[in-house]
Write a structure and sequence with these properties.
By secondary structure, this protein is of the alpha+beta class. It is 39% helix and 14% strand.
Length: 610
């Protein structure tokens, strides 16, 4: 095989064994790798109706055929499992250096099953895998764990691990790699913790075989020239201000979620946007392996109240912990972000859950004596303290650790939770960006922008502009972006590759660039139609997992706040998200029943079985 390494490592944590299986070339072509390979394995070996924290639930780490090849942004891996937060599928994505090192050990994927009696970590050195005791690491944060493991193994190895949040099964615990990079969403860290698996440490020097090395190098130079010609003018100013630069754009469009999604504008936005982060806290840019953009931010706090150094925060963190909580104290947001990385928490769900708690207190539904302290809009000190308490499941943090839906439900008002499928939303208000609402509702993992992000059309005119306020015709573009996302995730690329190389195609998108890279790397001679069908196949395979788990149209939902209550401020003032109308169109585009279940014809077209 070319592009792929051709092997899957299977780790039975109950038995304490590791064995290798070959990758079926036909499966590799049909599902590409990464996210696609992950859902293929999860459907075959997992139980969609089972308990996400049971030993039987597989935890799958998978790279793509372009991971580590030198293709720009080709530094991603996926974590696939059943989510303890949502009960749906996960496909949590991370970059950095770990994914390339993992692939170079000689494996395209690792499948963890069972549960170890005592804490362990997996050490893979040049293709040789073994489980080692991790009792001495249990209770350590992700930075301490990483440092200790590099001393025990090799200084130039790479580590992915959980912190106390994963050990304590916080439902939105993340897996952290390279200290600062997160497979953050849907509670993958809690699944890892439920297996008593503390870390995965990898060291590999294996060469990634390419079918057409000369052709790959020539095309790579062509694409790198595109990136490098105007890298400082990259979409959204990513090299200059990172994703934090998006704050200005969402504020101007009136889609910056504020006060637990009650409105889409925030008066304090200038104190938390990207230029302020760059001016006050930036030490240097950080890039994932082989990436010319360098959108990561190595930052440092020099504040009398807080101190620390780390990476971030990203835009989604700034919205969730900033405008959504009415907090304009950027130092507090940066500090809470560091705490999330060290304890292993998803920053989006953390911030959104705290905002939900603030509204519950504000409306008198949640007594402050239950919180153990005052909790008011804009309180940066509360953000820092309660973030730490959540990661440790201490005091009121034990309730926050269940996520906003369960918190709001506990106090009798689940309508105040900003979720779809019980997962909190990223930072684009769908009353002012209609397709984003449809993308949130139909995302296989619950509220997410990374499983298909039509904000590029609606807000940033990439690859071409579309009125964000209309809802007619949005089903087709949303489905197209979701298919593209599946291809990107499965190939091992970052979505920012697609932003630089999208081609508009009949209000859809074509994976230009990805096609040429995959064919040069794998020699599979994909046609454009075959590649686009692969993306559609992955989406439908995930939808079948959801159907098996009991999900249907009722779960493709948004809170009434977004579909019934008009936006009170900004350019979207007076608007609601027209989800039901878009859903009817979306299911027709997909070839699904009006209850959201894939029809026989589309399954036959994609060679899928129920």
């Amino acid at each position: 095989m070319y592009g792929w390494m051709g092997k899957i490592l299977r780790v039975d944590l109950t038995a304490g064994t590791c064995k290798e299986d070959p990758v079926d070339p036909s499966v590799a072509k049909d599902y590409i790798g990464g996210r696609g390979l992950g859902i293929y394995l999860l459907r075959r070996e997992g139980d969609a109706r089972g308990d996400a924290l049971a030993p039987e639930n597989p935890l799958i780490m998978a790279t793509g055929p372009l991971t580590g090849t030198g293709a720009p942004t080709g530094a991603r891996y996926m974590v696939m499992t059943k989510s303890p937060l949502t009960g749906a599928v996960t496909c949590s994505n991370s970059g950095g250096m770990f994914p390339t090192e993992l692939k170079r050990t000689g494996f395209d994927a690792i499948v963890f099953t069972g549960r170890s009696e005592a804490p362990v970590y997996l050490w893979i050195d040049q293709g040789k895998a073994e489980l080692r005791p991790a009792n001495h690491l249990w209770g350590k944060n992700t930075h301490e764990t990483t440092d200790m493991l590099l001393q025990e193994t090799q200084a130039n190895a790479r580590v992915a691990c959980i912190g106390p949040a994963g050990e304590k099964k916080v439902l939105f615990a993340s897996i952290m790699n390279d200290k600062h990079r997160a497979a953050g969403r849907s509670g993958v860290g809690a699944v890892m913790g439920s297996k008593n698996l503390k870390a995965v440490v990898v060291r590999g020097k294996g060469r990634i075989p390419l079918a057409d090395s000369d052709g790959f190098k020539a095309f790579n130079k062509q694409i790198l020239d595109v990136f490098n010609a105007g890298v400082k003018q990259a979409p959204l100013g990513l090299t200059v201000n990172g994703t934090a630069g998006v704050v200005m754009s969402t504020q101007n469009f009136g889609v910056l979620p504020t006060k637990n999604w009650q409105q889409g504008t925030f008066d304090g936005w200038e104190k938390i946007h990207g230029e302020e982060l760059t001016k006050r806290f930036l030490k240097k840019n950080i890039a994932c392996y082989g990436c010319p953009i360098g959108c990561g931010r190595m930052t440092q706090i020099d504040d009398p109240r807080f101190s620390g150094e780390g990476e971030g925060p990203e835009y989604e963190t700034i919205y969730a912990m900033g405008s959504n909580c009415m907090i304009d104290d950027l130092a507090a947001i940066v500090k809470a972000n560091y705490i999330c990385n060290e304890l292993g928490l998803d920053t989006i769900t953390m911030g959104a859950t705290l905002a939900c708690a603030m509204e519950l207190v504000d409306r008198g539904y949640l007594p402050e004596d239950r919180v153990g302290r005052s909790l008011t809009w804009g309180d940066g000190d509360a953000l820092v303290e309660l973030t730490r308490m959540t990661g440790m499941r201490e005091g009121f943090g034990d309730q926050l650790a269940e996520g906003s839906y369960r918190l709001a439900e506990r106090y009798g008002h689940p309508e105040l939770a900003p979720v779809s499928k019980k997962q909190e939303f990223p930072g684009y208000e769908p009353r002012g960006a209609q397709a984003m609402g449809l993308a949130y509702a139909t995302s296989p993992i619950g509220g997410s922008h990374m499983r298909g992000d039509p904000a590029y059309f609606e807000l940033f005119s990439v690859p071409k502009p579309m009125d964000p306020h209309i809802w007619e015709g949005k089903a087709k573009v949303t489905a197209a972006f979701q298919n593209l996302s599946a291809i990107i995730d499965s190939a091992g690329l970052c979505i920012f590759f697609a932003v630089r190389n999208l081609a508009a195609k009949d209000l859809g998108v074509a994976p230009t660039g990805v096609l040429e890279y995959l064919n040069a790397a794998t020699g599979m001679n994909y046609t454009l139609e075959e590649l686009m069908l692969a993306g559609e196949r992955i989406i439908n395979a995930e939808r079948l997992f959801l159907a098996e788990a009991g999900f249907s149209r009722k779960d493709d939902s948004l809170p009434d706040r977004l579909t019934q209550t008009p936006a009170p401020t900004g350019p979207a003032k007076g608007m609601v998200c027209h989800l039901d109308s878009m859903l009817d169109d979306y299911y027709e585009v997909r070839g699904w029943s009006q209850d959201g279940i894939p029809e026989k014809a589309v399954l036959e077209k994609l060679s899928l079985t129920v």
